[in-house]
Amino acid sequence: MADQRAGRGPAITCAALAKTFGTGPAAVEAVAPLDLTFAAGELTALVGPSGCGKSTVLRMVAGLEAPSAGTVTLDGAAPADLQGEGALAMAFQDASLLPWRSVRGNVALALKLARKPVDLAAVDAMIARVGLAGFENARPAELSGGMRQRAAIARCLVTQPRVLLLDEPFGAVDELTRARLNTDLPALWQAQGTTALLVTHSVREAVALADRVVVFSSRPAQVVADLRVPDLLALDSAEGRTLMAEVTAALSQGWADDPGSGRHAAQ
Amino acid sequence: MTRFQISRRHLMGMGLSGLGAWTLGMGPRAAFAQTDVALQLSWLHSVQFAGSYIADERGFWADRGLNVRLDSGGPNAPVEPPVVSGTALVGISAADYTAAAVQQGAPFKIIAVAMQNNPFAITSLPDNPVNSPADLEGKRIGMATANTPVLRTLATLNDVDFDAITIIPTQYDAAPLIAGEVDCLLTWSTDIPVSMYVRGIDPTVMLMADFGYTLHSQTYIATEDSIANRRADLVALIAGEVQGWEEYRRDLEAATDLTLARFPDAGLDRDTQLEQARRQVPLMFSDLTDEHGFGWWTDETVAQNIETLDLLGMPVSADLWDRSILEEVHG
Amino acid sequence: MIRARGDMPRSRAMAGAVTLAVRLPRLSREGAQAVGGALAALVLWELAARGLAGSYLLAGPVDVARYLQANSGLMGRALAITLENAALGFVAGNLAAVALALVVVLIPRSQPVVAGFALVVFCLPLVATGPILRVLYGPGPGPQITLAALAVYYTTFIPLMVGLRAAPASWFDLMRVYGRGAWTAFVQVRVMAALPYLLAGLQIAAPAAFLGAMVGEFTGAERGMGVLALRAMRGLDVEATWALATVAAVVAMLAYGALGWVARALAPARPEVLLAPPPATALSGRAGRALRGAGVAALTLVLMLALWWGVMEAFGLSRFFAKRPDDLWAFLVSAPTAAENRAILWEASAQTLTYVLPGYLAGLGLGAVLAMVLVLAPGLAGAVLPVAVALRSVPIVTTAPLIVLALGRGAAGTITIVAVMIFFPALVACLQGLRQAPGQVLDVMATYGAGRLTRLIHARLPAMLPAFFAAARMSVPAAVLAVTVAEWLATGTGLGNLMALTASTSNYNLLWSAVVLVALGSAAGYALVGAVERRVLARVAPEQLR
């Protein structure tokens, strides 16, 4: 059922997808019933206030969280089917590198977990492509935050996934490094035709990287805006500024009464 | 250690066939029809048990078809449990310990007595001596509080005002006396005073047995079941002990040297061991033993023991003692 | 500076993390301080010995060296036999700890029962277990090895149990995203994440194993360091006594240092540190938790009773010394003298409690305070820590009489002995905790020009609390062990004395009643500290409780 052409990503369909954590009076509705389709090969940015449930959507797409209601399908297949094939990859808010493995070891681990042959030449090539050539043997503790995130991206990409899920991977990185990551990295996956979802709270990052920006309200997550980003949009052009203003406006509109509480809903 | 030495001695006699039997787990018993038994000692190996080492080394037990393992004691190794459970055929206890165990339901009998005279003593320094129980009044005595009944009994026996003695709880150690924390210590006459003597401090030692505290010590105990069903082994074991201790008395130096040679890793000091060997002679041998043999007692001494035990709060009857084994040994 | 700290130096903060390890001197300056501290300690020791000359209490380093030179063969053989038993016990105890931790991780529901069971067994006083083990094993090294194993398994089990869970959730998500299950997560994440915790446990275990083997020799061994120590103390041989104490301390320090080195070599990068035990229950609501807690306690109790009974029956141990639960019931409840028996126990317990409580609190407090002092004056650490390790490693059996001489035979001496046993682990744990204050928080304080004291109070102290409580929990059994040993060997009071008396009175009902009291009391104390810990950590360090 899934698209068998190597590297070509599936379309992702969320149908009446909802998630509630806990039961009884302590229940927290993280995601209200949601109908959304993400086109194959596109990068969609999900933006919204902190704790709005956008990470939960991502985790349900990854098959890490079971929906309370509704379904997620990837070209008709369940997330779990793609997990086994190593066709899914996810980058986390913190880089989540295993501290006892070198950069090379961490990247190679993805191949091992995906049951693919561990080709160290390919691993090193991927490390070089994210700009970490020379740091193959370094331990995560010896790297800066930005370098660790790049190593995590290399780990995601080395298995040539068909679905790439990025959960605020640059959230902890300073603005300068983030800008550089944003210009360097998209080329890596765009060439592969991967379907990608990027959770972020940076409007600038969303508009710069994505083909489409979906803006969520505060918890429970509901779509307040769904905007297409024209190809080759320059951020400092009038059009780019207008789009960013639109996203920002949608964000503040969706910023309902109580945005602060319930950080755990996003975990 | 003990086991190894026993086996080595036998191996020399047995040659390779014996070695084969030993390694097959049959032991010399199969080769010689010997019975393996254990004797549970009451403290760490030292000249305190030299008679047993002599019995072992000179084959006094082997000649009687017995292969005796000597199990070391220690501060956390009570004698009574291994004897009750059969790990040891015989244990070395003391009349008061045995009486207490019998009170708690253990089926013990005293079958021989190594120390006719109780080794308890009041040790003091010569410039502030305790020569008689009366001297205790107004003094601070260092001892384990558990021994309070012992001191009370001594006071009662000698019409001493017990309340005029101050008890200071101490570890079993001469240091509090030397440091002047206490005026005297309740000790055995054969250990702490010896350590002090060897180090050049010759203490005044008042043996409590000289002042009416009559209580058998280093008594050999066995269960009623063993006395009924393992008589031959018991007789052989005690006979070996008797012979060993008589040899001991004949040559204290040889007994001391044997002890040192047998336990090179025990940290024993020759001067201390020899002095201890000397000082335990008057406790173990008396006119009574000269007449009847080592380990003996009479109805009269038992009666005195019962009186002391009564004062200690441990009423017993003469049944606690069973002389039938000794009678067979000496008969 | 600030940027660099926020970015890079987690590695530094982490390098000092988890392990309750004292860092070996790395820099020459630290090295010089360590050497200076050691020299100062040696000089003090020699002066104290000279001051006490003629009292037969303390031999100085010169006499000790002379003794060791003259008796190297004797010492070497004793050391070899005790080391061998300690090593076997160390291996056996730690294997048991690993097995228990695996059970808990693979069957999470078993955790409260297994942990409670492990704690109670750890709290069994060796005055009682020693003779039983001797009867079970007969002659030979069995009891020594077993007591060494019993001395170590718990201090490995607890950190290991925590360590096997101490990984960020995203590491497990990573495994799942690739469709891999619990086994892969166990091999790839849990085992490696637990390694530093295991090594920290092993490091604490090494000196404990040696002391366990030494005390095990009191059950009737023929050779070894414990046998020599007994002989030396009884024989007024202070040179030998302190030579033995010195060798034991040096062995303990070497083992501690060597395992610390192995830990740093094997696991240089450490994950975030979790020191709180996992919650006993997943039920929400206070009533539900209490109910579940009571159920777990009851189940543990029933299992303990069954095992107690079962072992004694299985080995056919005589009721004369191996009392069953029904014997104790008769002794304490249904016998005509029951009230009298209870009164004896009650009095002894009260006596013990008046020693153990102040000693425990003083030891913890002292450890925490000294840790703070060392943070405020970091130059001192290099000199003080090695001395503290050495002091902790000297067997309590030899130090107890000295402390009693210095402070008298009353409460002060015993309380001090307990405090000394608690003080060192508390110091090391608190020091580790204090060093874990996040760099960014400290930098924020620095930007406001906050001094060392302000930083200590607002940033370091909260960071210290998890480690402090971990030490406080583990110190409960240690304090009880210390007080019973001190009572047994030095003061002749309380439960320790009551248990030791059994050797002459054969009152094994009293002994086993005391054993049950001590074990249950330690377990209750542990649980109480754990409850306080959860309350406090819920406020200052909720991440420890997830």
UniProtKB/TrEMBL annotation, chain A:
<protein>
    <submittedName>
        <fullName>ABC transporter ATP-binding protein</fullName>
    </submittedName>
</protein>
<dbReference type="InterPro" id="IPR050166">
    <property type="entry name" value="ABC_transporter_ATP-bind"/>
</dbReference>
<dbReference type="InterPro" id="IPR027417">
    <property type="entry name" value="P-loop_NTPase"/>
</dbReference>
<feature type="domain" description="ABC transporter">
    <location>
        <begin position="12"/>
        <end position="243"/>
    </location>
</feature>
<dbReference type="InterPro" id="IPR017871">
    <property type="entry name" value="ABC_transporter-like_CS"/>
</dbReference>
<comment type="similarity">
    <text>Belongs to the ABC transporter superfamily.</text>
</comment>
<keyword id="KW-0547">Nucleotide-binding</keyword>
<dbReference type="Pfam" id="PF00005">
    <property type="entry name" value="ABC_tran"/>
</dbReference>
<dbReference type="InterPro" id="IPR003593">
    <property type="entry name" value="AAA+_ATPase"/>
</dbReference>
<keyword id="KW-0067">ATP-binding</keyword>
<dbReference type="InterPro" id="IPR003439">
    <property type="entry name" value="ABC_transporter-like_ATP-bd"/>
</dbReference>
<dbReference type="GO" id="GO:0016887">
    <property type="term" value="F:ATP hydrolysis activity"/>
</dbReference>
<dbReference type="GO" id="GO:0005524">
    <property type="term" value="F:ATP binding"/>
</dbReference>
<keyword id="KW-0813">Transport</keyword>
UniProtKB/TrEMBL annotation, chain B:
<keyword id="KW-0784">Thiamine biosynthesis</keyword>
<dbReference type="InterPro" id="IPR015168">
    <property type="entry name" value="SsuA/THI5"/>
</dbReference>
<keyword id="KW-0408">Iron</keyword>
<dbReference type="InterPro" id="IPR027939">
    <property type="entry name" value="NMT1/THI5"/>
</dbReference>
<dbReference type="GO" id="GO:0046872">
    <property type="term" value="F:metal ion binding"/>
</dbReference>
<dbReference type="GO" id="GO:0009228">
    <property type="term" value="P:thiamine biosynthetic process"/>
</dbReference>
<dbReference type="InterPro" id="IPR006311">
    <property type="entry name" value="TAT_signal"/>
</dbReference>
<comment type="pathway">
    <text>Cofactor biosynthesis; thiamine diphosphate biosynthesis.</text>
</comment>
<comment type="function">
    <text>Responsible for the formation of the pyrimidine heterocycle in the thiamine biosynthesis pathway. Catalyzes the formation of hydroxymethylpyrimidine phosphate (HMP-P) from histidine and pyridoxal phosphate (PLP). The protein uses PLP and the active site histidine to form HMP-P, generating an inactive enzyme. The enzyme can only undergo a single turnover, which suggests it is a suicide enzyme.</text>
</comment>
<keyword id="KW-0808">Transferase</keyword>
<comment type="similarity">
    <text>Belongs to the NMT1/THI5 family.</text>
</comment>
<dbReference type="Pfam" id="PF09084">
    <property type="entry name" value="NMT1"/>
</dbReference>
<keyword id="KW-0663">Pyridoxal phosphate</keyword>
<dbReference type="GO" id="GO:0016740">
    <property type="term" value="F:transferase activity"/>
</dbReference>
<keyword id="KW-0479">Metal-binding</keyword>
<protein>
    <recommendedName>
        <fullName>Thiamine pyrimidine synthase</fullName>
    </recommendedName>
</protein>
<comment type="subunit">
    <text>Homodimer.</text>
</comment>
<feature type="domain" description="SsuA/THI5-like">
    <location>
        <begin position="48"/>
        <end position="248"/>
    </location>
</feature>
